[in-house]
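#struct-queue
[09:14] JT: dropping the first one here, sequence first, then the structure tokens:
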Amino acid sequence: MKNTARTRILDQLKTDQAATNAAGLGDANSDAYYELVTRIVSEAEDAEAAILEIVQLLKEHGRATSKCPVFPAWCTSAGEHDDHYSADFTILDTRGEEMLAAHVICNSGSTPIVGISGSDFAPDEARTKATELRWLADQVETLAAHAEGAAP
């Protein structure tokens, strides 16, 4: 039973490493990681318990290192950093190109700003723009109804 689990885990590690390298995300560090985990699982008396312990350690390490200590609610940068960036929220056009985008940025020592399609706004200004965007969205709904001939 345990050999079956060990084989399954080792096969999955090999598959994951190949996929990481095929996606162009592999490097010497990721290769060393896969080699270390493979060795630990291969040598462990209980392969499933070993992999569960590794996963728990990775989760604990991830919690400690993945959150920005300054802006943990939105900064996507990990590790030590001075400039802070949120995820981008975008709307794409029919060609799949960015039509509208928004994010938060805070460069070293400055106040966070909201970027909306190339323009920067203070938080209160961004809220005003959000109100305008909601109004615009309502107008787009009306225009779509006109185009369908469904408007009263």
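[09:21] JT: and here's the second one, same format:
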Amino acid sequence: MSEFDRFADGLADEVLSEMADNFFGARREMDEQIEQFKKLSRELKKLQDQADHYAEILHFVLLGEEGAVGFYEAIGLDPSDLPLCMECTVPPLLEGLPFALTRKGRFRKLVILAYRNMRDSVEDYLHGHEYADPDEPRRRRVSVHYDSLKRMEARLNLQIEKLNRQSSVSNTLQYVRGLNPAELEREKIAGAPAFDDPQRLDSTFAYPRQDMSAEGLKSFPEFPAFKDVESEIRQFANAFYARNREAVRAMLRELREAQQNANP
């Protein structure tokens, strides 16, 4: 082997080593980013489940779909825009029922409490809350929330698109084969194809787009703050009670029984 051949082989080895580091390094970094995205999605799913739980409580208090639909319309929301199940037939377990001198007053307080809990949990899910960094108490951080994860999803998908386009497996292998022109010439003479199906090869190893909905996450609309709809909620609760006295009485009894059965 001539000095030039040895130099060429050494250069090819160096190029291959650098290409491998770049190729697999980029994929390793992408794997880590996707895993972080999925981890945050799992954390956010717990907040979503909490919001759904509070919505179920509200809908049970309102005696199901008809009452829930009327309630949301009363505070200016379109029920068809809400990603919520309006029915709840199983009595939820509450820490306690609000005190009031009358059954009407207890029902009204229960509606208010249920709405505020649901609205606060949805707000936390959508926008998060500030908290002190455990390592640096002076630094304020924001908890994981839907808005931030949606932005992360968009950035991640741009990176995935770029990686799939610029570091496709077929192009990388084709470049590597080109570093050995003698072998490439022999393959051409023998009629050997470069790859059976480069598009299929790229498709097999391409990173799929990340999707929050595939992680079980959904978007909520903005629920109005209680202070902005307090009058509407009180009026609705009073009118609803007047129309459904016996059904409300039965609902309150179910809640008490569920509480007693949980704490015999």
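[09:30] RK: nice, looked through the second one.
[09:31] RK: The first helix runs from residue 3 to 61.
[09:31] JT: good to know. Confidence is low (pLDDT under 50) at residues 1-12.
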